[in-house]
Amino acid sequence: MESTPAHGGSGTAVGPFDFPSPRAQKVYADMLTWSGQHGTADEVRARVPVAAWSAEDVRRSVDELTELGLASPDPDDPGYLVLSDPRLVEAQLGAAWRRAALDLLERSSDLAEWLRPLTRKNRDPLHADPADLITHLSGKPLIRAHISMAMTECTEELLTAQPGGSRPERTLKAVQADVSALLDRGVSVRTLYQHTVRHDGPTRAYVAAVTAHGAKVRTLDELFDRLIIVDRKIAFIPIGRAREEAMMVRNSALVSFLAKIFERSWLRSETFNGGRSAKDSADITSSLQETIIRYLIAGEGDAVIAKKIGVSQRTYASHIARLKSQLCVETRFQLGYRLALLSKTY
Question: What pTM value is reported for the model?
Answer without folding.
Answer: 0.53
